[in-house]
Amino acid sequence: MWEENLREQIVDLQSPCEKGRLEEFLNKQDLKLDQDVEYSIALYKGEKIVATGSFSGRVLKSIAVDDEHKNAGLSARILTGLLREEYERGRTHLFIYTKPENRSVFSELGFYTIAQVPSRVILMENRPEGIKNYLAEISKEKAEGGGISAAVVVNCNPFTLGHKYLIEYAASRCEKLHIFVLWEERSVFPAELRYSLIKEGVGHLPNVVLHKGGNYIISAATFPSYFIKEYQEQVETHARLDLEVFSKYIVPTLGISKRFVGDEPYCEVTAAYNRIMQEVLPACGVGVEVVPRLTYDGLAVSASRVRELIRMNKIDEVKGLVPESTYRFLLSSEAQEIIKHIQLSYQRH
To answer: Which has the least CB within 10 A, 105, 186, 264, 320?
Structure first.
């Protein structure tokens, strides 16, 4: 069989030649190579790429087969190679974001649909009980009886007085407030640290519950854009998919009837997300309240402002922007590597 003559090879993404050849192949398939791709494989016929696939973290992406070799089982062969490498790295719970027309291909390969934005994107996972297990875990904190249950989704990189103000405001206007912490390791402050700083900072509020966002609170940092051409469409599609998962699964599981969000004077992506949220969630019976930002010295308090002061080695000026617990951490020896990283790089989130 001619398929046996195909050569499977790991693509050296550090090689301009190999990476360029991969990007050229994907462009012909109307796809792009996401910047965060950490591993790619390709099937070669001679020196020509006929199929490829990549991943970043737990997300499989850029799986493509050229037109001459479709329906020949090459997607399965690529997927097998990606799964083998993911499993060797200790990752067994995996996800695919792809175009809706590819649903049947990945369903046959063992993936299950979680949510979709019609004609734009579909999110699938390789565990039939994945989302159900997550919901079972968070449902342990469902409010009993009547009253308003609300939600806040935060990153807190790091936890500031602005976050504390938003959470206190929201908690004062509901019987139970569910706080979802973004969980991808894309922030300079690690997820477990962000979670612990939030937990310490809101410990005085008896009606709040912290949840690890896990794989089902989708941030802009991890939403793949390789199959969407226009940036604005990427932003809108990400927002609609994340809100689809939130409204379809999390809202009914916890009985959430309101979501609080801080207004966004700086980040256009977050501002666009807030606008779409105000369109989507009320149609699902969930009210949205945009809370004005807390200000200090005439400027909105934000994590990016805190990181900028750290970058400028003005730790003393951070004190007016963060809770005492966050400031105490920043002065500790544990924070030194993080501070060094901030001062040597630029990272928006």
So the answer is: 320
